[in-house]
Amino acid sequence: MEILQIILFSAALLLVLYNLIVFLGLNRTRNTDSSQSGEINYSIIIAAKNEEKNIPQLITALKQIEYKTDNFEVIIIDDNSTDNTFAVCSGLIAGMNNYHTYRVSNKMFPGKKGALNFGIAKAKYSFILITDADCRPSPGWLKDFSNLFHKGYDFIFGKAPFEAEENIVNKISCFENLRSSILTFSFANIGFPYSATARNFGFKKSSFEKIEGYQNTTETLSGDDDLLLREAIRNKMKIGTLNGNDSFVYSTTKKRLRAYLKQRSRHTKTSLYYLPSRQFNIGIWHLINMFCLFSPLFLAVNILLIIPFFIKILFDIITALVYQKRFGYQFNLVEIFYLQILYEALIIINFAGAIFRNDSWN
What we know:
The protein is an alpha/beta fold. The chain is 48% helix and 11% strand. It is elongated and about 70 Å long.
């Protein structure tokens, strides 16, 4: 029993240390945006599969971007949709010279990677931005990317919040996105990047080609963002984060719990192929959180074992309250408390799903 107490109190101390590192990362300003010195030309690549309902909102948002239309092109790749995605998209962009839509053919890679690779090959500009067909980039999206690319970054990722709705699956999704974003941005800002979000992702085409594109990221159907970032890390490329709020890329969440769990297990499976140093670090983070969360189960051993739980909850609440607006969210105290517990429990479920569920590109 003494060993158990030592483990739990050690976990609490480690949790304090990790949270201090998180706070340090979130408050580090080495990637602060500055005034741009000339607009960069971009090719925006979007893979679409059965997205006829979402394409209109995406194109409307792209039209509102505050950037010269001569300085960017939009390439939408219809990846063998069974609905009217191609026809709807073609109709919406008719007469717009910097918009193009293609039906994918002869993909080099399966799933979304193949469609994106097809689009990147069509790109005429030297800087690539990736987003999804169900997304809505903010008006300042391209300007903020331009600011950082002028600083010499090879790969850059930004914030991608979900739009809030009044249902439990949405709240779970939004809170999970908040917690994941806090961790990914804080560690990236201290020079330890490990994950990105394809909804808000950009890179130099030359850097993409240097790491052989998606050639070394075929372990899973997903991972067009995280595994590509992994290859950039392996090749010691310069990775930056968009820390401002003018470059948000918004999207909606899944409506049903089953669809959400399927999506999260697919993303969790990608983490099984992170670099070992990243797997170890993130694994320790989640383990110490689990130990502290479940410490009240051992109150019969020692009443003081409630302390790790309270330390965890205190840090969770402080972190969410202080940083949620930075990532596009607004949760109240009660929501933070119960959603944090659900978040931890779902990590276990999603990990099991990652091991036993098959991938699919929907």
